[in-house]
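Recap for those who missed Tuesday's class. We walked through two folding examples back to back. For each one, the amino acid string is listed first and its predicted structure tokens come directly after. Nothing is annotated here on purpose, so try labeling regions yourself before you check the end of the notes.
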Amino acid sequence: MTSIAAALLSDLARRVGSAPVPRVKALHVPPAPWNGGKDGEFCALELEDGSLGLSYVLLDDSLESLAGGRSAPGLVGADPMPIAAAWLEVPGARRTLGFAAVNAVSRHLLDRMGFVPAEAPDSIGGLDPQPGEHVGMVGLFPPLVRQVTALGARLTVLELRADLAGDHPGFTVTLDPRALQDCDKVLCTSTALLNHTLDRVLSNCRSAGRIALIGPGAGCLPDALFEAGVTTLGGTWVTDPSGLTQALRQGQPWGRFARKFVLNAADWQSASASARGLMTC
């Protein structure tokens, strides 16, 4: 069990308190096998109030297992909190499903308090790389690489794939997380939270002035992340749940049914006092 994940789930349970949580209405899974596009990379867990939680499905055998129904028996009508707890302890598809439940309950709570995050100015969490800055990126994502290097920043990418390691035009790929230790800013995808590698990443980012956690899976309550050193959360705010789930199941683009948001620690702190009062009443 990782400290960030444990703290996040504990905070989620505390904020839920004794109030009833909407039960699971459905699990929406993209077509299997993976179609090779970004629109087939996420599932969505839907609660009875329409809250959606997204989770990456390309780790382990998650997509095939969830699409075949092997990892979600008796899901409809279930309490999402025990499902969320599996994110901490169970690998594979049940971990993926648990993370989706964490995000779905988080969206339910944010809607309950009336909180709506600001629209993101870009796809990199408003990181604003500057010429001469050293930026770290966790995971090689070519479109994001171009956004960083085009602004004149020096980029180091942390990867798990040994075949990608080495020098590339405009950036370097390494397998050593210690390479993040002298980065001024760090961009990390929410998959590091899903697979419990975020603790190790952040332990090597103590010199970074800004750390952005981004991606469709970055839809959870942010307190535990901000306390661990993340400064910005850049996720996906679903605006049309019905449209998104229909497109997702068909493997079609679903971006028009959502928008990218950005949430900074300072902005959340200003809303947190009222949020706590509403969430625990």
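Example two. Treat it independently of the first, because the proteins are unrelated.
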Amino acid sequence: MAKGDKFYFDNFAACTALSKQAAVYLVECLENYNPANFEKMLKEMHEIENNADVKKHEMDKALAKAFVTPVDREDLDMLSHNLDKVTDRIEEVLQRFYIYNIQAVDKSVIEFAKNLVKSCDILCEIMAEFENFKRSKKIQPLIVTLNDIEEECDKLYLESMRKLSVEEKDVLTIVSMRKVYECFESCADACEHVGDSIGSVIMKNT
């Protein structure tokens, strides 16, 4: 690996670490949920998201100046964009709780958030291996695990939406929580999409 190539892999690792930080913070917010703390929660989450944006901008600048890159420039840009989307989506979950002024949470949203932490853990493991992708035997099994977690999220989404429709009587709560669950599902999809993108990059370059 060329000396300058390490920047790209370090940047991706930093981005996944920030996604995990956001997911862990989301769990913390939901396990200790208090609508009176919305301002503090949103501020702290946005700081994490802003740090992720900084990493994305650093990647953009590096790619604009680079002559030779470890894989196609377009693939590096795609991965950077997809990684940034994970942290954006996690922030959006917390914003939905604020927008709809949700006053209480149940165990399903906490379970969803914990699944996001699992997904981000896997992404961190993948990125730790990524610079050695031509020799690594760990990345593909990790991508499969990431897909399995997304399937768990799909099941949780269906169960939660069904329960909401059957048991909840308040129309505003139904509408609000549907938006929240849809956002959680979008987060899980974003994580899986990063894994699938990495798989495609590896296939193109080995």
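Answers for example two:
The mean pLDDT is 95.
The two ends are 14 Å apart (CA to CA).
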